Amino acid sequence: MIAKLSVAALGCLAWGFDFSSRAAMTNVNVGDDFFAPVSVTIAVNDKVKWTWVGSLSHSSTSDTSLWDSGIHGIGFTFTNTFNSAGSFPYHCQVHTFQTGSIVVQAASLPPVVLSNPRRLSPTQFRFDYTASTGKQYVVQRSTSFTNFIALATNTASGSSVTFTDTTASANMNYYRVGRLPNP
Fold first, then answer.
1. CATH dotted code for 25-105
2. Which range is least confidently modeled, 51-55, 100-104, 149-153, 168-172?
3. Ordered alpha helix ranges (H), the chain
C-alpha cells in the first residue's frame, strides 16, 4: 500500500490504492443437489472455496467456462480467485438444476492523500512513493480527477520509488499509485 508521497510547492492531488492486500476467502458448501449459500458477494481479488459435503458427486462449473472443478465427491475442495468485477453464474455438471452465482464488486474508491509533485519543467513532474520491494505498482495520471490513464507499471526494486512524468501537458495533474497483484 502507498504510505507517502513527497511534498513540494505545486498543489496537486494523489491517491494511494492497493488492489491486492485485502483478499478474503468465502466458503460455499457443495451438497446433494444444492450450493450453500446459493449466491455470494465478494470483492475483486477475493477467493471462493467450494467444499464437497454431500454423498453424491458434483462439480462447480462456470456457465461461461471461466472455471471447472471437475466432478468430485465428499471431502474435495476447490478454490477460485475472482480478478474482475461482474456476475458469475455456475452449475453442477451432474445436476444441471443445481446452480449458484458469485457477484464480484469493484473495490471502493481509495482515501485521498494530498501531495505536491515537484514540477521540473512545463511538461515534467516528479514524485516519490513508498513501496514494498518486489511488488508491482501502476502509476496513473488525470488532468480532471477522472479518466485516469496508466503511465507506467513497475516492480519496486527498493522501498522508495521516484517517478518522473515526462509527458504531462497540463499545469494541474492528478496522480495515483496503486499496488497490483503479483503474478
1. 2.60.40.420
2. 168-172
3. none
The model's pLDDT over 87-104, given as tens digits with 9 standing for 90+, comes to 999 999 999 999 999 998
Q: Where are the domains positioned within the chain?
A: 12-19+108-180, 25-105
SS3 100: strand
Those residues whose C-beta lies under 8 Å from the C-beta of residue 8, and which sit 6 or more positions away, are 116, 117, 118, 119
Rounded alpha-carbon distances, angstroms, from residue 9 to 28, 72, 116, 125 = 53, 62, 6, 12
The mean pLDDT of the chain is 79
The confidence score (pLDDT) of residue 183 equals 55
Residues whose CB falls within 8 Å of the CB of residue 142, separated by 6 or more in sequence, listed in order: 148, 149, 173, 174
Q: Which CATH class is domain 12-19+108-180?
A: mainly beta
CA atoms within 13 A of residue 82's CA, in its CB half-sphere: 26
pTM score above 0.85: no
Contacts of residue 168, Cβ cutoff 8 Å, sequence gap at least 6: 123, 124, 125, 141
Question: How far apart are the C-alpha atoms of 74 and 76, rounded to whole Å?
Answer: 6
Q: b/e per residue, 3-13, with b = 16+ CB within 10 A?
A: eebbeeeeebb
80 backbone dihedrals φ, ψ, rounded to 5°: -135, 140
